[in-house]
Fold this sequence. Notes:
Elements (H helix, E strand, L loop, with lengths): L5 H9 L2 H11 L11 H19 L4 H17 L5 H14 L6 H16 L2 H8 L29 H51 L10 H45 L17 H16 L1
Helix pairs in contact: 1-2, 1-3, 1-4, 3-4, 5-6, 8-9
Amino acid sequence: MALLMPQEVKEVFQLPKQRGREHLRRLLHWEELDELRDLRRSILLDALYDSVLFAAGKGFPWVQVARAVKFTEELLVETKGCSITEAVRILGNKLVDYQLQFTTSHLLALCDYFHNTFIRHYRLYQFVLGQDQDVNLTVTRLEVCTPPQPLPLAEGTHRDTWKHEQQMAALGTAEEQKRKDVQLLNEALRAEQARLLERTFQLAGAWGAEGTQPHQGLCREALEHLVHEAVGIQIKSLGERLQREIQAAFDILDLRLQRQVLSLNAPLPFPPPGPGQRGPEEPVKSHKGHRGKKAMAK
């Protein structure tokens, strides 16, 4: 590895981590990395980048920071496949070789750094950097649906107001549905009435024909029976219609009463009215107070 220039390692240190790693890769003239498939070179690049951070963070001059990077790469290459005892010996020899290139305090700091990182996790470094790894990578593409763009807050409705509007709308829908049900029921009763009348006329015609000559009308008894049955059918149908309509009228009145009570208990607007502004409940209260005064005057 060629020794990096002081300005180059300074640029690596000053950049954010991802950009700093990428800049260091380009300075080392490495090809682009696939972080998942080329795990060995990715970890090696991390080790070199961490040495830049360590040396610069300890106050090493930029020249010595570049030497620390070179020291790190040489140590990783020379200890490949060695036992931990041999690795400690190689580290000691390299510290002796570099003693003229670092100050005593910086050399001791470099020794502590590699003992606490490289030597302490030596087996892990050897497992990753010393042998090829089989990487089984499965890529699954998932489509993520983003939520819809929310409306501006200025166009929103307060929660209590929205619930009140929903309740009012539900009562209005129930009243309209009640009217439709009554209309459908009246149509069904009229159809049933017409069917019963037609059946009565047919039975009366067949019964009257038994005691009369052909091409003659109904006898008096048959006619009275026909009128009696027809009137009974109409009265019964009318009674059912009136009963259903009365019940529906009570239900509609009950729904209207609920809407009236709900409108009187409407929530205050949001934001609340300022000083001098009239809220939605104030006219109702003043109207009730006016009626109370009139009643007391009477």
